[in-house]
Amino acid sequence: MSRFPFQRLQSELAELIARTPPGGRLPSEPELAKLLGVSRATLREAMRTFETQGLIRRRQGSGTYVVGRVSVFESGLEVLESLETLARRMGLSLRVSDLVVERVFANQELADIFASPLAMPLTRVRRVMWTEERPVAYLVDMLPEEVLKAEQLPDDFGGSVLDFLLDRGDPLTVARAAISAIGAPPDVAKALQIQRGDVLLHFTSRLYDTSGRVVDYALSYFIPGYFHFHVVRRVVANSR
Q1: Domain 73-230: top CATH class
Q2: Hey, where are the domains in the chain?
Q3: Was domain 3-66 assigned CATH 1.10.10.10?
Q4: pLDDT tens figures, 52-65
Q5: Tens of pLDDT, residues 170-227
Q6: Ramachandran category for residue 125: left, alpha or beta (phi over 0 → left; psi -120 to 50 → alpha)
Q7: Which of these, 35, 36, 29, 41, lies nearest to 10 by C-alpha position?
Q8: How far is CA 142 from the centre of its chain?
Q9: Rounded distance, CA 43 to CA 98, Å?
Q10: Is the CB of residue 70 less than 8 Å from the CB of residue 57?
Q11: Is the pLDDT of residue 1 over 50?
């Protein structure tokens, strides 16, 4: 399909989404592809644009729904702060679901990350973060048991391991993160109620204490349309 017809397809989809009230269900994928005269593969490619903007949400086995106005979490990446802290500052609602706190053992990759023996016991914290009744982020933290035991998390745990450690007074210093765009793995797609392979923002980060030890290895998956991250960079004069 040439560029112009694809743009026309996106325009027609935008009009259809605009005519559908928030919470309304769009026609099924086969119906919509037939209506617009395109293949299902081309339709999926065009739909991804609107999904990453947070305008629609596809639910596995249910269909595609119009979301309506989206509340966006906006933050700079120069300072590490939790989603809870960000939500409070912006006046946005946030809640945690599907919380799983479990004991696991370090494989070779995790042993290398923590500079620890193989099979060292770790506490893994998995959860889904919701805003306005929509799942928007899937978070996984792994910490040595000597840093955090499962029973230490309070019953009213709001979803932020970082805030828990800070409130406890742990001597944290910096975090290093790698950021990429990935296709949603099956388990993450299910948790976020999206399609497998849909685009997500993926952060892989290591949190260090004052001794230079990694105390938390975190994997974060964000639905792009709900998050705007930015970086302020200093201009350095040319040395020539």
Answers
A1: alpha beta
A2: 3-66, 73-230
A3: yes
A4: 777 888 777 788 88
A5: 999 999 999 999 988 999 989 988 878 888 899 999 999 999 999 999 999 998 878 8
A6: beta
A7: 36
A8: 16
A9: 32
A10: no
A11: no
